[in-house]
Amino acid sequence: MQAKKRYFILLSAGSCLALLFYFGGLQFRASRSHSRRGEHSGRNGLHHPSPDHFWPRFPDALRPFVPWDQLENEDSTVHISPRQKRDANSSIYKGKKCRMESCFDFTLCKKNGFKVYVYPQQKGEKIAESYQNILAAIEGSRFYTSDPSQACLFVLSLDTLDRDQLSPQYVHNLRSKVQSLHLWNNGRNHLIFNLYSGTWPDYTEDVGFDIGQAMLAKASISTENFRPNFDVSIPLFSKDHPRTGGERGFLKFNTIPPLRKYMLVFKGKRYLTGIGSDTRNALYHVHNGEDVLLLTTCKHGKDWQKHKDSRCDRDNTEYEKYDYREMLHNATFCLVPRGRRLGSFRFLEALQIPSTIRSIHQDKILALRQQTQFLWEAYFSSVEKIVLTTLEIIQDRIFKHISRNSLIWNKHPGGLFVLPQYSSYLGDFPYYYANLGLKPPSKFTAVIHAVTPLVSQSQPVLKLLVAAAKSQYCAQIIVLWNCDKPLPAKHRWPATAVPVIVIEGENKVMSSRFLPYDNIVTDAVLSLDEDTVLSTTEVDFAFTVWQSFPERIVGYPARSHFWDNSKERWGYTSKWTNDYSMVLTGAAIYHKYYHYLYTHYLPASLKNMVDQLANCEDILMNFLVSAVTKLPPIKVTQKKQYKETMMGQTSRASRWADPDHFAQRQSCMNTFASWFGYMPLIHSQMRLDPVLFKDQVSILRKKYRDIERL
């Protein structure tokens, strides 16, 4: 009896001690966390930022979900199920405590930046098309390196997408194959892509091998196993998902009111037994056959009739009455219930057809619908965008001092086109002036591309320089000397009221005209070919137009593209028509950020093509800007004097007289469209003229009266 009492007292004391330690530990961790957050706070509670400039945080128009890192609980193993305890030593759970600070080597990224290495493909290893598309997206990106010693992140060439043992895409013996990789290092600084894990009947999240300290870019990942600020949750996509480009969303018009024929729709399989059955079996309670259509079918699997219930026949009949795509196109919102796994293809399908719920106000419905279109087109419409978004998220985690904020990720043009390496100040980009309450730049830098020797004081380049310098908006002029001859003496250049800087082009190649030169001190760039004929009045007018459209190319010489059905390829034309899709950079104004994007976003293969041909750099810049803005350029007042002037045959500028020149531009169009995965150029019929242009009124009433005389 005494022994039982002693045992009971000992057990009670131990329990109390454990509880005290548990609650005290939580308080200790919480207080320690608060103290860390307060380390950078100064007197009066004011926050003093570190030397690194962080992105400013703006309130979102649409309230975001709470980020995972704000929900994270360090003591994540307090509430675990018996199954989780049994699986504690299995593959996916071993690194459950992994975070960037504990399982990632940042030193690999400090020297060479964010570079990604893909293991060479091993002979005889099967790779599904979807995984080939993922690897191709990485290898075609600006992050790729073929040198593992330069890499910050490593990606396996072994196909890890489908880890369902019943799948024909399942790769056997992956455990031993991964462990034999000499760079594996227990998965440290590795990224593993996975769409399917586990198999029937449990569909666990075990990928079938020890991932060690590797990060997961995974679809259908549960909250229990997702490691905040370490893993990346990606959408489940089908094998038919486009590799590049991708279709635009189906929202063509902002219909007011935004309600459609159906309020809520779903059409899919109903699982009669096993995991996922409870969710879809309950949908019939909401289905009303009018504006709420939640249709399920029992017809799937080999032995579905063995398990059919009393509702199956009725459900199957109702299911066949409706066309899936017709329902989606006419729905206000689309239900995305879980299936066997947590993820569903309908997540991506629903993004193309925006959704919401009945109780939300119509204004919010329209805003949400527009936002889903943006998210679809910016991050999900192709495998390439999904992969690049994943890599950009990881890069933000590594370089936190320049990581993108929610405004950048959730506002056009999105995180893939706003590169934080360019600047940590949103006002340095042309997309956020309205959000910041800023006026567009009031000055420009004229950059004149010179390729012919300076032999006469009457050459067009000198007249152009003087005309640009007289503009009230001109801050400076840069002459980019891409001529084989030495730089002219300083006295050969005309005297101007603004500084004239002459710099030699890097390697004398065409792409050097779009390098982000430090000498360009203004956000606005007036790009000029040496043979361009422009008056000061024309320069002033074009710049005032650009100030209203700072994210676009604004200028004079327009060109267009078309689809040639007979040749089944894109064509380029300089014919005078009622529309255009390009404004050539021989006489155009744009934001200098596009110099940075041209240099650091576009692949070397396209820039090398431009340099080898000494052609098409202007077309490539138009492709880039239209891909970013999803808008056409803007042409200002018609000017028939501007032509692709045929200059002396001894000049490098005689490329205009080269019979191959036009054919090269046709070829460039198709090569560029292939890399982008679609045709980003957009036709426009808008031309902006000065007020009262060509009107039968006194010339004295016109501000830009000189333009009419040209």
TrEMBL record:
Residues 111-352 form the Exostosin GT47 domain. GO terms for molecular function: glucuronosyl-N-acetylglucosaminyl-proteoglycan 4-alpha-N-acetylglucosaminyltransferase activity; metal ion binding; N-acetylglucosaminyl-proteoglycan 4-beta-glucuronosyltransferase activity. It catalyses: 3-O-{alpha-D-GlcNAc-[(1->4)-beta-D-GlcA-(1->4)-alpha-D-GlcNAc](n)-(1->4)-beta-D-GlcA-(1->3)-beta-D-Gal-(1->3)-beta-D-Gal-(1->4)-beta-D-Xyl}-L-seryl-[protein] + UDP-alpha-D-glucuronate = 3-O-{[(1->4)-beta-D-GlcA-(1->4)-alpha-D-GlcNAc](n+1)-(1->4)-beta-D-GlcA-(1->3)-beta-D-Gal-(1->3)-beta-D-Gal-(1->4)-beta-D-Xyl}-L-seryl-[protein] + UDP + H(+). The keyword Transferase applies. It comes from the Eukaryota. Residues 444-693 form the Glycosyl transferase domain. It is a single-pass type II membrane protein. The keyword rRNA-binding does not apply. It is found in: Endoplasmic reticulum membrane; Golgi apparatus, cis-Golgi network membrane. InterPro entries: Exostosin, Exostosin_GT47, GT64_dom, Nucleotide-diphossugar_trans. Glycosyltransferase forming with EXT2 the heterodimeric heparan sulfate polymerase which catalyzes the elongation of the heparan sulfate glycan backbone. Glycan backbone extension consists in the alternating transfer of (1->4)-beta-D-GlcA and (1->4)-alpha-D-GlcNAc residues from their respective UDP-sugar donors. Part of the heparan sulfate polymerase, a dimeric complex composed of EXT1 and EXT2. Could also form homooligomeric complexes. Interacts with NDST1. This is Exostosin-1. It comes from Equus caballus (Horse).
